[in-house]
Write a structure and sequence with these properties.
This protein has about 325 residues and is of the alpha/beta class. It is about 30% helix and about 25% strand. The chain has nine helices and 16 strands. Helix 7 (about 245-250) links the parallel strand 13 and strand 14.
Length: about 325
């Protein structure tokens, strides 16, 4: 089979689309013919060597995708032809993937492979942020960093679905326009005096800030009201400064960490959370922007486009 691989760390030029051996199934695994694969910044970090990788080259990145079961491997809950997706299975950048049964998420008939590969990782992230890290309530004011990104767009829609007013931060007028088209209530730009603008818009501060930038965490606390919350779930802008516990005590503010893998802990949790997401999509309560599509063979171009930060929606790879 073919796979998008890398044997050395570096830029997109290290990627190679080559023949490798088909996965040998272990008990409790399905063989899935991939139909669509989600591309994420984590794949860039793996390619650059920022993340520790097990095994030996050639390495295969990718953790998110959707496809068809072609070998059920005597697992009674699945059969050949079943449509499944996953958010947390390694080596997804290939024509065929060995998927642990507990990680396989059955796809409803009205959820396409492309939609599943576009939404599972980012959608399940937005879902746990709005319902677990912070339990969003009607009437709250929510501030979302990187609001035009994949998680930001979905988190905006889910927060509004739960009754919150949404404020967003982004880096350009073009991305602000994307966020407004997505339904956000107000957008401010990072290069402006956004902290004062947020506090002018919401005098006492916001109820919760979702911070995926990291280096902005102290700023996030400054625009959070007393008894409010900051949810820290990413470091796109670098490590945050240390948080002063005395500040938390004096203002009764809360800092919560967020990591999807803390919530996808069982087959039941994966299916329950994905089912909620699929229901919102099926009921047109949240909308998924059409993805940018590349062939898996053109992975170098896809990685280059992702790193250019010119994309507002999801990038998917098609074997």
């Amino acid at each position: 089979m073919k796979a998008l691989t890398f044997s050395t760390f570096g830029g997109p030029e290290v990627l190679e689309y080559i023949d490798i051996l088909t996965p040998v199934l272990q008990p409790g695994e399905l063989l899935v013919e991939m139909k669509a694969i989600g591309l994420n910044f984590a794949d860039v970090y793996r390619r650059k060597g920022n993340y520790h990788l097990k095994g030996t080259p050639p390495f295969i990145a990718g953790y998110e995708g959707a496809g068809v079961v072609i070998n059920a491997n005597n697992n009674p809950d699945f059969k050949i032809g079943d449509r499944i997706g996953f958010a947390d299975v390694p080596f997804a950048n290939a024509e065929m993937v060995a998927v642990p049964v507990d990680h396989a998420i059955p796809l409803p008939a009205n959820i396409s492979f492309e939609t599943a590969a576009s939404v599972l990782l980012q959608g399940l992230t937005a879902q746990y942020l709005a319902t677990d890290s912070h339990q969003t309530k009607a009437g709250e004011v929510v501030l979302i960093h990187a609001c035009a990104g994949g998680v930001g767009q979905l988190l905006t829609q889910i927060s509004k679905l739960l009754g919150a007013k949404t404020i967003g931060l982004t880096s350009s007028a073009e991305k602000a326009a994307t966020a407004i088209q997505n339904g956000i209530d107000k957008v401010f730009l990072y290069q402006d005096d956004w902290k004062n603008e947020v506090l002018s818009f919401c005098n006492n501060g916001v109820d919760v800030v979702y911070d995926s930038i990291g280096s902005t965490l102290q700023d996030s606390f400054e625009v959070t009201k007393n008894c409010g919350q900051a949810v820290f779930f990413g470091m796109a802008g670098g490590d945050p400064a240390f948080v002063d516990p005395r500040m938390l005590m004096d203002t009764s503010k809360t800092l919560t960490g967020g990591d999807l893998w803390s919530y996808l802990t069982s087959k039941e949790q994966r299916i329950k959370r994905a089912s909620q997401l699929f229901t919102w999509i099926s009921n047109n309560e949240i909308a998924i922007s059409p993805p940018t599509v590349f062939k898996l063979a053109d992975g170098k171009e896809a990685h280059t486009f992702l790193e250019s930060r010119k994309s507002n929606g999801k990038i998917i790879l098609i074997p």
